[in-house]
Amino acid sequence: MAAHAGKTAIVIGAGIGGLAAAAALAPHFAAILVLERDHPPQKAIARSGVPHGNQAHVLLLGAQQALSALLPGFEADLEAAGAVSFRQSADGFMDFARIGKMTPFDIGMNCYAASRPLIEAVVRRRVAGLANVTIIEGARVEALLTSSAGDAVLGVRHAGPDGAPVTLAADLVIDAAGRNGTLSREMLARTGREPLAATAIGMEIAYTTGIFAIPDDAARAWKYAYVVAGPPADTRSGLLLPIEGGRWLVTMVGRFGDRPPADHAGFLDFARGLRSPVLHEALKTAVPEGKFARFIAPGSTWRHFERLDDPPRGWLPLGDTICDFNPVYGQGMAVAAQEAVWLRRLLDDGAGDLAELQAAFLKGLPAIIAPAWSASINDLGFPQTIGERPPDLAERLRFAAAIMMLGARDWEICRLWMEVTNLLKPPTVFQAPEFRARIGAVMAEMAARA
Ligand SMILES: Cc1cc2nc3c(=O)[nH]c(=O)nc-3n(C[C@H](O)[C@H](O)[C@H](O)COP(=O)(O)OP(=O)(O)OC[C@H]3O[C@@H](n4cnc5c(N)ncnc54)[C@H](O)[C@@H]3O)c2cc1C
Which of 36, 166, 322 to mutate to test the pocket of ligand 1 (most atoms within 8 A of CB)? Predict the structure, then answer.
């Protein structure tokens, strides 16, 4: 606490990452300004600064727990705001490519489903309520300001309400402005640093989402349904989530130029084309509310800020600025919030000056990002995906398929698999000898059948 008390911080962006970062800093900094280019609406509706906000946003348990650690009582707030609680697996219909339908086990994992705007509104309300945090809306940051030697970030320049530039100084600037990391990459280039190394796994992922009133005949064994694509040939997915207001949020996902239509008939047709008829059946009598929303994501990109030799002092990246993941794995909010928890832990543990804090934070990023990134590596199993294939890719894909196969019928593996996909445990847990042996047996079984 003492090391940073009295210092001021600026956080760029009031998305989930920026808000979580502000919450992480709050006990340790005198004043935190969050600069947001949008005027986020009071109501839980999507806004232009987050163009993907209409799309399905699964709140993984990893996100839920990280946000609760930063904002105690977050889950109760979410429920009070209308989020729908459900039991992971037990309340789900899940059907995976090559594996088929999963047995709905009760694995003791309680989750919430809500629209992204509602999740963000709940987090924003809590963060705005912190005494030393101020969210300034309509403040588009144009540049990170640096020392003349380029060895420190000193503040930011943003456009004021009348468009005139405003400069603000801070001891620490956190860039949580989202996908691409443009502001930080521009600052690093301007201060003479080499372009950042990045790893990309390129595949076009097209989302179309509709909101539906839940039909009266919707007495089903499941609360949510997920039909999941898988390499090499099954490229279409569909997800149905119950959200606030007694509605279903339904997303269709296509890859490699197969874009789900944004009209009702075309959307239903795409749903009919999924491997399982469950979503099409459910939607037959459901009435859409408003327009369908589309978004196209380019895959996954990890910008390796952790490899910078001499990062300028007084600056940290966070959230999608560092890594944007293939959205189908639902990881972005969890990773951003876990990075913020990491920042809080370093501050709580008394990380020395800001340079030490920065070094420790950047060094710890791969341990947070790599477990999530391992899911994107599976995308390389689609022949059309662009990216460097690890030499053991085929083995990895067989291993992943065997985990799913086993998890579909075995409570213990199902629970572990869900803990891994919810970013509560790293995928390395499956390397324990007792699991390896069982997974190996299933791999042999699958090979014999192939
Ligand atoms: C289609 C899609 C579906 C997704 N589904 C899921 C999911 O199921 N689960 C999940 O956990 N994640 C999902 N994600 C990822 C998730 O949206 C993000 O990873 C997560 O919100 C963390 O993002 P962030 O806060 O870093 O960035 P963002 O959410 O993009 O927020 C950035 C903020 O910065 C503001 N901003 C940008 N530039 C400036 C500037 N110059 N000055 C001031 N403010 C600025 C923006 O207005 C915005 O408020 C999905 C993403 C996409 C694209």
Answer: 36
